Structures are given as C-alpha cells and as structure tokens.
Amino acid sequence: MNRYQIGGVNYQIDPAYDTPEYRSSAQRAPTQPLVVAPSRLVEVSFPVFEESKVLPRDADLCHQFPQEPIGERIRVTGRLLGSDGRPLVGQLIEIWQANAAGRYRHAVDDHPAPLDPNFSGAGRVLTGPDGGFQFLTIKPGAYPWRNHPNAWRPAHIHFSIFGRLFTERLVTQMFFPNDPLLEYDPIFNAVRERRARERLIARFDWDTTEEGYALGYRFDIVMGGHLGSPLVAS
Amino acid sequence: MLPTPSQTVGPFFSFGLAWMVPQEPVDTGFVVEGVVVDKNADPVGDALVEALWVANGQAAFARSLCEPTGRYHLRITASGNEVASPILVSVFARGLLQRLVTAMYLTDIGDELLCSLDPLRRQTLIAKPTPTGYAFDVILSGESETVFLAW
Ligand SMILES: [Fe+2]
Fold first, then answer.
1. With b meaning 16 or more CB within 10 Å and e meaning fewer, what string describes A48-63?
2. Structural domain of residue B101, as residue ranges?
3. Which of A36, A134, A225, B69 has the greatest number of C-beta atoms within 10 Å?
C-alpha cells in the first residue's frame, strides 16, 4: 500500500487490494505482503512516447463517426501534475467509458441498454506544455453490475496515465459531482481517505462550459510515486 | 499535493487500450508468454499485462490483453542478452483496485531482491526458457502466489 505524508500526517491514498465490499477482489488480491523493491529496480523511465501516434481528433469522442453520439455533451479539461505541483508535459492519457445509456462497446457487457453506433467510448490525448489536456465526449450513464443486490456504478470515465517513471503509472476513474450513487460504490469508497477520494470527482466548471454546446468539467490529476516523493510502502 | 488514487481497470478496457498492442507480428527479439491465474487457479481472462524493460540503455514498453484463457503474449524487441534483468511487469484487472507489480528475471542473477526471498517464492520471479522466448505465469493470489513489489 502506498501512503503519502504531508506535514507528518499519513494519508492512505490507494485502495487496499483486499477490499471485501468489492467482491471480485477476494479471488484476485494477493495474500502475501508486498516485497519492497530496491528503488533502482523500479525507478525506470518510460520510453518517450511517439507523438505522431496520437492525433488531435483522438481527444474528440463526439466526432469519430459520421453522426454524433446521443447524450449530454461534455468537455473534460484538466492538468496532469507531479505531486510537487509541476506540470507533466507530453504525457499520454487514455480514456474509455460507457455511452449515455451506460453500455460499453465490449463483447462481455450484457447490460440491456442500447449501443450507440456513433460512439466508441475510447479516446486519448497528449498533455500540453502546461500539463493540460481536454476531451470532448458525452456524459456516461450509470450501469448495473453484479457486486451486490441492486448494485449500480456511478457514472465514470476510466483514465490511464503513464507518468515519467514506472512507479508513477496510474489507472483511475473520474466521477461526477453530486452523484447519489457515489455513496454506495465499493470501488470509489475503497479509497478510505476522504481527501484522496475527492481527487476522483471532477468539478463542474463555468469557464470551460461552452454556451449552447457543452458542459465543462475540470479534472486535475496528480501523480504520486515518483522519485524522491515521500511515499513509503507498508 | 495529494496524489490521485488508483481505481480498478474494470472488465471493459479492451476497446480503449488495445490500440497499443502491435497488430502485425514482429520478428525482432523474443516472446514472453504465460497465463494470469487467480486464487483458485482459474484463468484471469480480463487482465491487462504490461512490460517495461531496458535494452542497451534504452527503455521499451509492451502491452498485452489477456485472452479468455488468461494467456498473455509480449514481444520483447531485443535479444535476451541485451535486456537488463529484471523486466518490470504490471498486471491490471477487474478485482484489483491497484495494479500488481512484479519483476521477471530471464536468469537467476542472485541480486539484492532475489536474495532477499525464500527459495520457493524466489522461483516465481524466474522465467523459463521456451523455443520462442520465455514463459512467465503470474499467480495473483494463494499458496504459490507470485512475489509482488512495493516501493
Ligand atoms: Fe466502468
């Protein structure tokens, strides 16, 4: 488990592998304590990403097909920062999400909600000189899952970020403010520290809300686990 | 600043993450393949496996999406002699709220990490040679669980 220290206070940032409320963790969570690796072994830089592999249109999930997807158009804007607050430039961010009806374009998703022929739900972007990124997409729907009776995931967008070093690699989820399902979601609530949990909730933002076109949400991402950060394993 | 916490990759990532998996066969280097299994030795058919290695001072990266049989397949684009041990491996899956990280050694070089492990657990980090490269199974949980790393 990674913990984070600010002013001598320990914050448990990441959720525990073994989280009984999240049922499938029981078969997959390790049972042995993690072994602390010598730092030179894991502090390996990721290769520089080939920028030509990501095109500006990859960040626009509303215009990947001849027609537009159905749903509430949103602009998700954020900055990717190191835990020292410095912007991380030229970093690859990948996202994937359900459509407005809460259905994924995935063979295993059997939620009886319609697929949208004009929505893939997948996007990617490279962060700019100020660590900034922006996606245009539609707001994903909530969807049911089998974790417990009448279980519903709150609306969310999945994010994958590499970081500079192997230790920074992060896969996370972005949630929406004031979603009544958040309170009941075992995945979101597996993050025990309230302040860390709040990092996962985007903020509604007038500045990026475009009149007559799209609602704006801000989602800043802060990477932990880099060289010299006060992360300690336990 | 407080870092953003990890969340599970979930079961439905393939359509978002498969684009980085090479579509055409690559001839250079060697293959690392194996299965990811859970506590009951059942295959984990929805895991994401990534490798980061250094060869001739250059970092390189590969990604694989497990088949329903739990099998993954990574092309390491360098020769076994050129690759510095260990290759770093991340496993993401539904049920894992954070990735699991392990280290794959092509040979038992008896370094600081390996020497700190008891002999049985140490074996979980050593890949086995195959005609096309190496085999490396990842056992997420249970008696013969793979050694996973923190820092
Ligand atoms: Fe999801």
1. eeeeeebeeebbebbe
2. 14-139
3. A225
Question: CA-CA distance, A156 to A176, in Å (whole number)?
Answer: 7
What are chain A's domains? 47-223 (2.60.130.10)
Q: Any idea of the CA torsion for B3, B9, B10, B12, to the nearest 10 degrees?
A: 140
Q: What are the pLDDT digits (tens) for B96-149?
A: 999 999 999 999 999 999 999 999 999 999 999 999 999 999 999 998 999 999
C-alpha distances out from residue A171 to A94, A168, B4, B10, Å:
9, 10, 10, 10
Based on the residue annotation, tell me whether A143 is a catalytic residue of this protein.
Answer: yes
Task: Give the CATH number, domain containing residue B42.
Answer: 2.60.130.10
Cα(A227) to ligand 1 centroid in Å equals 30
Nearest residue of B to residue A13, measured between CA atoms = B5
With CB atoms and an 8 Å threshold, state whether A32 touches B59: no
Instruction: Confirm or reject contact between B52 and chain A (CB < 8 A).
Output: yes
How far apart are the CA of A67 and the nearest CA of chain B, in angstroms?
A: 20
**B1 part of a folded domain:** no
Please count the structural domains in chain B: 1
pLDDT in tens, B64-106: 999 999 999 999 999 999 999 999 999 999 999 999 999 999 9
Nearest Cα of chain A lies from the Cα of B63 at a distance, in angstroms, of 12
Residue B102 counted as domain residue: yes
The reported pTM is: 0.96
